Amino acid sequence: KLKLAIDSKKFDTVGIDLVAMCSNDLICNFGEPLFFLDYYATAKLEVAEASDVVKGIAEGCIRSECALIGGETAEMPGMYKEGDFDLAGFCVGIAEKSELNRVEKVKAEDVLIALPSSGVHSNGFSLVRKLLLEKLGMKFEDEFNGKPLIDTLLEPTRIYVKEFKANKNKINALAHITGGGIVENLPRVLPDNLKAVVQKDKIQVLPIFELMSQHVEE
């Protein structure tokens, strides 16, 4: 996703993704985000680009209801080619020790609820780029679902912190569906004696996934 942002010169949303992947992991451990720190590494610092990235990080922190308390910027021309940069970060949260083990809270006949995503989120972009841009020959500016394709692809990862806080006392466990999808992430919160029954026809699929599903095997 970062490669798409660099190639399209759109830098104002990837910072949100950076925070989202951390804060969404935290709430799966019943932690509430407290603060975030970022690391920005590049060949040569482009102030305008970096400023947009940091604005996105700040927005991600607002959505996660945590503080951006610092970060590190590194210029390493020997490590990165001109125009490239990399992002990393981490989020610290707080949780009650008694609430950390969510697997023991999951019982038979619990209801499994799929929360809507905003799009592709932050995993699987090697596939996205290979399929849409290479195999299908689509361009960033191609119209898709009423807007340029690149805007759909760079739609920031949804942050679920507010939903978590509002419904915490009704939730037994949470699974963050990232790389590996449902089949690899959902079992993490299931006891050995239980399985999840997923009703695929009840999941509302976004148009971008419908497009991709026409060209890849399930």
Account of the protein in words:
The strands form two sheets. A three-stranded mixed β-sheet has the order 2-1-3, covered by helices on one side. The longest helix has 18 residues. The model has no long low-confidence stretch (mean pLDDT 96). With 218 residues, it is α+β, with helices and mostly antiparallel strands. It has eight helices and five strands. Strand 1, helix 3 and strand 2 form a beta-alpha-beta unit. Helices cover 34% and strands 16% of the residues.
What topology does this entry show?
Elements: H1 2-8, H2 14-28, E1 32-42, H3 47-64, E2 67-75, E3 85-94, H4 125-135, E4 143-144, E5 147-148, H5 149-153, H6 161-167, H7 181-185, H8 207-213
Parallel strand pairs: 1-2
Antiparallel strand pairs: 1-3, 4-5
Helix pairs in contact: 2-3
Q: In brief, what are we looking at here?
A:
With 218 residues, the chain is an alpha+beta fold.
Features:
218 residues; alpha+beta; three-stranded mixed sheet; globular
Mean pLDDT equals: 96
**Which oligomerization state do the chains in this entry correspond to?**
single chain
Quote the distance from N terminus to C terminus: 22 Å
The topology string of helices and strands comes to HHEHEEHEEHHHH
DSSP strand content: 15-25%
Q: Give the strand order of the largest sheet, numbering strands 1, 2, ... along the chain.
A: 2-1-3
Radius of gyration: 19 Å
Query: Low-confidence spans: pLDDT under 50, at least 5 residues?
Result: none
Biggest beta sheet attributes? 3 strands, mixed
Number of strands: 5
Helix fraction, binned, reads 25-40%
Shape: globular
Count of individual helical segments = 8
Which structural class should the secondary elements be placed in? Answer: alpha+beta
